[in-house]
Design a protein that fits this description.
By secondary structure, the chain is an alpha/beta fold. The protein has 18 helices and 14 strands.
Length: 512
């Protein structure tokens, strides 16, 4: 279509030029005798048709170009938005900004980039119709947004490019920008709730302030970087910061990939002790990097780098697979076997294949569901409550227990605890450290334990290092203890020996 329009435009221009020459030669012949000797009138009557013809050709060519561009834009939008509309793409957005922004240099200018993450809730279903429907709704909502907000249409320019919506704004401050994002989020949720059966929708926003230091394309890219940061951290709105553009050392990438290939990562186990029954009832799997170059490294030394180079999924999967392999080995050898809890990152927990991946690995190693427990942080559970509740319920339906890790240090209201069906809650070490000497710390821990008990959840205290802490937690009805007092994280071989004989269990219990 675009090629045909260009050819037609060229044809019209050539035709116009021929007409211009024809008029230029015809007029002197016809009118030459009439205005003979009057050079001024000759110039006027000869030049006017030529100028008119040239102006007509240029106007016609511009009109055809505009119509051609609009037709191409509409067809492109039909393919990517599911709707034949003149909604801007990235190119037309730039043209509009260049034509408007230079007259509004004194006004604050920002770019909002946002997507809705269509997290799958049903497999093997064609979701295109629902996604196109949502795209179409967002286009209409954005076009009506100035009216909804009671502001001038000229304060916004909207566009869509490669799955990302852009809003170029004028005269907005941080508060009003956040309000715009909230308005969009509410509208998208309401639409999705009524019209989306097969996808669960979560909007993410990135905002960048436009200045004079970079090009428009760079500012657009910064807004997308901020949006990606929002999605990775499950935050609704993120304002761009230069630190978001982390440069990953190529040596880090190579070393971590090589560590995975050489199987240098190992899993350690830290037992958990049941205070009422006076026995170990489970353990937590903790990853270590047994590097040839650096020695044995704790997670804090390498997990940040692994996330930066995009290896979070591989490491999370490795830990679960290794745990299932170790459990399978213990079962075959007739050793004592206890449930093991495995930590998962926020990104992994909300991935579309999370549940399928867990079940597939457990089936591969023939591991009963009661032997695997899933730990997620408080921040993870609060990122999208609706979706997290759905995922946790599905895990529990499979017989897999779900634990909240680091309880108390997140941003959520403790009242939300009753909404999410956790089996157990782990009180963070920062609350345990001072319970011997600080009465306020003891009261806080007592309150947290009571809160969990009211909601029917097991209470696990993390980071318990001495007998005095154990005694205080016992008096406050804590269920389970995890910490160096009972055992530090140990290798699989040492863990097997520990379960066979340790100073905290009776011999007949350890042999069971």
């Amino acid at each position: 279509m675009q090629v045909r329009s260009k050819r037609f435009m060229v044809f019209v221009i050539v035709l116009g030029v021929l007409m211009t020459f024809f008029i230029a030669f015809l007029v002197p012949v016809v009118l030459g005798d009439i205005f003979e000797g009057n050079h001024i009138l000759n110039i006027i009557f000869i030049g006017s048709p030529i100028l008119f013809s040239a102006a007509f050709v240029l106007a016609l060519a511009y009109f055809i170009y505009k119509e051609s561009s609009l037709r191409v834009l509409q067809l492109d939008n039909l393919n990517v938005l599911g709707k034949k509309t003149d909604f801007n793409n990235l190119y037309s957005l730039q043209r509009k900004v260049f034509s408007i922004a230079r007259f509004r240099k004194k006004q604050a200018q920002h770019i909002i980039a946002f997507t809705f993450s269509n997290i799958v809730v049903a497999q093997n279903v064609n979701r295109t119709e629902e996604i196109f429907g949502l795209n179409s709704f967002i286009v209409d909502f954005l076009n009506d947004l100035p009216k909804t907000l009671g502001v001038s249409q000229g304060e916004f320019i909207f566009a869509f490019n490669r799955g990302v919506f852009f809003i170029y704004t004028f005269k907005q401050n941080d508060q009003s920008l956040t309000g715009i994002c909230d308005t969009l989020t509410k509208a998208i949720y309401e639409y999705a709730d009524k019209n989306c059966r097969y996808v669960s929708v979560q909007p993410f926003f990135g905002i960048e302030k436009v200045g004079d230091q970079e090009t428009l394309l760079e500012y657009l890219e910064n807004a997308q970087v901020a949006r990606e940061y929002s999605e990775r951290n499950f935050e609704s709105v993120t304002f761009y910061q230069p630190g978001f553009r982390k440069t990953v050392n190529s040596n880090d990438v190579d070393e971590l990939h090589e560590a995975l290939e050489k199987e240098e990562f190992v899993v350690y186990y830290q037992p958990k002790y049941d205070l009422a029954n006076k026995r170990f009832v489970s353990s937590e799997a903790l990853i270590r990097w047994n590097s040839e170059k650096y020695g044995l490294l704790s997670p804090g030394k390498f997990l940040g780098k692994a996330e930066a180079v995009g290896l979070t999924h591989e490491i999370d999967t490795f830990v679960l697979r290794k745990v299932c392999e170790d459990l399978n080995d213990s079962i075959r050898r007739g050793r004592r076997v206890l449930p093991v809890s495995v930590n998962f990152s926020l990104y992994e927990f909300y991935s579309a294949s999370f549940l399928d991946m867990i079940v597939a690995i457990m089936d591969e190693y023939k591991i009963p569901s009661h032997l695997i427990e899933i730990e997620i942080t408080e921040a993870t559970s609060q990122a999208n409550q609706f979706l997290s509740i759905s995922i946790i319920k599905k895990l529990k339906e499979k017989g897999i227990r779900v634990l909240m890790d680091d309880f108390g240090i997140g941003f959520s209201n403790v009242g939300n605890l009753k909404k999410i069906p956790f089996d157990a809650v782990k009180i963070d070490k920062t609350f345990i450290d001072d319970i011997e000497t600080d009465p306020k710390a003891r009261e806080i821990v007592k309150f947290l334990i009571g809160l969990c008990k009211v909601n029917g959840m097991e209470v696990i205290a993390e980071g318990v290092d001495n007998k005095a802490q154990v005694d205080i937690l016992t008096r406050n009805k804590c269920d389970t203890i995890q910490g160096y007092y009972y055992s530090k994280p140990i290798s699989k071989a040492d863990y097997d020996k520990f379960l066979l004989g340790n100073p905290f269990e009776k011999k007949e219990v350890a042999k069971q």
